[in-house]
Design brief:
Oligomer: single chain
Radius of gyration: 22 Å
Shape: globular
Structural class: alpha+beta
Low-confidence stretches: none
Number of strands: 21
Number of helices: 13
Mean pLDDT: 94
Length: 422
């Protein structure tokens, strides 16, 4: 069963939150962070993208960069831009967005910010659906070690719980501690502090009845946090198991509230084929229908949108080309990888092949069209989004999703709450 605890969050004073908060470290590059931070010395980018404090081109993996992160974190606390709460408590975090996947309608999802137990990651109570890379794990471990804190949260999903939904609804009807609209994407963000002892007890007890939590986004942060926790336990001769380093910060959302967007592919060439030969090769395993110049979005599972030489196509996988009983093989990302990228285009390693790139669904089909029309790419493939239930089923079965399969939106804002390990 899942173990969570309240913690003394480190966070900005109410009047400073919009100057401090930022996008997550891994959704923008160094120069974008430099531009967004501008002359704002209170921007969290100085801690999570500290290479912006050095000359342009400085590697984010430079040892000086990690040291700068710790220096900036200390500076933020000394200047009162980040202040630690005196009481252990939970937090409720709401995100409001308008996304094409929701028909363009406004939608709000409510997460509970908790201290998640590192041991649950090690034992599989916290379930993952992606592989992690050792180099990225080490990068995040260095960042956690040097700051002795989880500066940014991990994004979890949990099976819907009526008691927690009612508790969240109670807080949602009150005045939030933070309430702002992010400048880049226009999404709304609110935060409430849960300091009532009975409510704290309820949250802890309800999570203790859940057999599993699921990582939605932040696999490397989860792995790094759990590994640093294990390191600290090993280094402490008086380790008891209840120390703060045994926990890391996560925002847990009810699974039914989450939105997963399409995660699309753009390909540099047709592996020596002409456009006509490529379409002919597709017809072996797909029902191919030309849709014209207007953007076309796949309408159902096992249908794909293809953009090639100014035209959109619908590709519907033929019966028998995938196994309904195979939880991995039935995924559209697997079908397209096997039958299009591998068999026809010769792209076998999605993580390393330089002939392919990936575009999150928030950018829309227009971004796929733009990158093909400008000659950078030859063709684009848009997928129908996976569902949260598919992700949970795969995690429960002990399997791993294929690479570049999920794109959760909205992303969590960083800097609203920070968790210290000491």
């Amino acid at each position: 069963m899942a173990i969570v605890k309240p913690f003394k969050g480190v966070r900005p004073p109410k009047e400073l939150v919009e100057q401090v908060e930022s996008r997550p470290y891994d959704v923008l590059d160094s120069e974008e962070a430099r531009a967004e931070a501008g002359d704002n010395e209170k921007s969290l980018y100085h801690i999570i993208k500290p290479e912006i404090n050095f000359e342009a081109g400085t590697s984010e993996y430079d040892p000086r960069v990690y040291e700068e992160a710790a220096r900036q974190f200390a500076k933020f606390q000394q200047n009162g831009w980040l202040v630690q709460d005196e009481k252990e408590q939970y937090y409720i975090y709401a995100q409001t967005s308008c996304l094409p996947a929701n028909g363009g309608k406004e939608k709000t999802q409510y997460g509970i910010v908790v201290g998640a137990y590192s041991g649950d990651y090690q034992t599989g109570v916290i379930k993952k659906h992606e592989l992690t890379r050792a180099d990225k794990e080490e990068d995040r471990m260095k960042h956690v070690r040097v700051n002795d804190a989880n500066i940014e949260p991990v994004f979890f999903a949990y099976p819907d719980d009526e008691v927690l939904l009612q508790l969240i609804d109670k807080y949602a009807k009150t005045e939030p501690e933070y309430d702002f609209v992010a400048p880049i994407d226009g999404f709304g963000h609110k935060l409430w502090v849960v300091s009532d002892e009975e409510d704290i007890k309820t949250i802890t007890e309800r999570f203790a009845q859940m057999p599993n939590l699921y990582i939605a986004d932040g696999h490397h942060r989860s792995a790094a946090a759990a590994l640093v926790g294990a390191e600290k336990a090993k280094q402490n001769p008086n380790h008891r198991g209840d120390e703060e380093y045994n926990y890391f910060m996560a925002v847990c959302f009810p699974a039914s509230q989450l939105t997963i967007l399409d995660y699309n592919r753009v390909i540099k060439d047709l592996n020596g084929l002409t456009a006509e030969e490529f379409i002919k090769a597709l017809e072996k395993n797909f029902v191919v229908e030309k849709k014209g110049a207007a953007e076309y979005r796949a309408q159902e599972l096992h249908e794909f949108s293809l953009y090639l030489e100014g035209e959109w196509y619908s590709l519907k996988a033929k019966p028998g080309t995938y196994d309904e009983n195979d939880p991995i093989g039935v995924l559209d990302v697997s079908i397209s990888s096997k039958l299009i990228l591998d068999e026809i285009l010769g792209i076998k390693d999605l993580r390393r092949d330089k002939r392919i790139d990936f575009v999150g669904g928030l950018r829309g089909l227009g971004e796929l069209k733009r990158r093909v029309d400008n000659g950078e790419m030859k063709t684009a493939l848009a997928l129908y989004p996976v569902t949260m239930q598919q992700i949970m089923d795969i995690a429960d079965s002990g399997n791993i999703m294929p690479p570049k399969a999920t794109w959760f939106e909205p992303k969590l804002r960083s800097g609203l709450v920070i968790h210290k390990l000491s």
